Amino acid sequence: MQKRVVIVGAGFGGLAAAKGLVGAPVDVTLIDRTNHHLFQPLLYQVATAALNPSDIAAATRSLFAPRDNVRVLMDEVQAIDSAAQKVKTSESGELPFDYLILATGADYSFFGNDQWAEHAAVVKTMEDALSIRERLLAAFEQAEKEPDPAERARLLTCVVVGGGPTGVEMAGAIAELGRTSLVADYRYIKLDEIRIVLVEAGPRILTAFEPGQSEQALKALGNLGVEVQLAASVSNIDDRGVTIGDRLIPAANVIWSAGTKARPSAAWIDAAAARNGSIIVEPDCSVPGQPTIFAIGDGASYQDTDGKALPGLAPVAKQQGRYVAKLIRARLAGAPLPGPFKYRNWGMMAVVGRSKAVADFGSIKLSGFVAWLTWSLVHLMLLIDFRSRSSVYLAWSYAWFTRDRIARLLTRKSVPNFQTPSAQEKRI
Ligand SMILES: Cc1cc2nc3c(=O)[nH]c(=O)nc-3n(C[C@H](O)[C@H](O)[C@H](O)COP(=O)(O)OP(=O)(O)OC[C@H]3O[C@@H](n4cnc5c(N)ncnc54)[C@H](O)[C@@H]3O)c2cc1C
Fold this sequence. Notes:
alpha/beta; six-stranded mixed beta sheet; 31% helix; FAD/NAD(P)-binding domain; binds flavin-adenine dinucleotide; four-stranded parallel beta sheet; 428 residues
């Protein structure tokens, strides 16, 4: 009987591992709780009505040929019996494995304040992005008919928490959406009523970049009308807005992009975990003491040669996925094993609004329009297929020349109601 490889998670890492095992003498089962592979780096553009969901996601099974040795299962993994080598799923029962690759990614962490999650949106899944889009658009609709100035101000304020690349990109895109595209469509909403605040607990934004690049990004955000509050620690988030120390910023929309934690796969296999819950792995990405189980991507903590854990980035997950596939192929063939995993760092980028970015490629640092152009080309190339690349290219070109947003329809019956209980009482 052929050996069985089970891969949990069809994100960047899991998909790369499955692709690397196509044609190998193994039966591969790729399980994901969604039916699509998602290009998370562009989620914020779906959230801000610049792209449609199908532009950045593809049905996972469409990425494999029907005769490939990869079976795609839409299901949720609930537990793992490592001794019996079985994965327990919600609907498909128990799946036996000879090799297991855990690629379950990460979730947002509210640093022990889980009650904030009720009032702060995160951008991790397609549902999250669509819900943010709906909330941003609905807040404008409600503000247009709101006579109370204080309530209008709250409706038109959005606070983004976390000055890393996701927060910076999100704040810039919301500013473009609200202050450039939407404001022109509403008769009673004025530009100076729209407030986008980016809150960062540290002394500067984009700390992974050089201070000069953080400064450039800060300036670019300022030009877009984003108010950046540095050294500002959030002490509370509730239905009124965000509190910094004892100062409340009334806001109908709050987006949290401040910290991540790995999904609970370490507990499934009783493995040692880093502080953020990710599984500490060996130099070959296997779990210590469990050589047939591997953890990759955001769910793994891999110490590079300099002793630092690799960052939670798509290229890390992809390269680890490819590496583990190669290792399993070598083990199956009894061939010499590849050496330890080595991350090839191509650099990092963060985009600010419609035409500015910062990019750090080691000795080459770019900023402004050139960095944005590079960012756009790189992201177009990284999208999963030709269809996504063409539709994103068209959408970006259209938006660049017209500043219009293609995807701003509110389609659900239950449009969010932002009124706080106290505002509702006033109305009654
Ligand atoms: C908004 C945002 C912007 C980002 N921007 C960038 C960027 O610009 N550049 C960059 O390099 N990185 C970026 N990242 C980070 C990058 O997306 C991650 O590092 C990468 O997705 C990690 O890949 P992964 O395979 O480990 O996990 P993921 O890609 O998150 O995939 C995990 C998969 O596991 C599935 N899953 C989880 N639990 C279960 C379960 N119990 N059962 C079944 N399936 C399960 C999930 O549905 C998901 O499909 C961004 C992330 C976010 C959220």
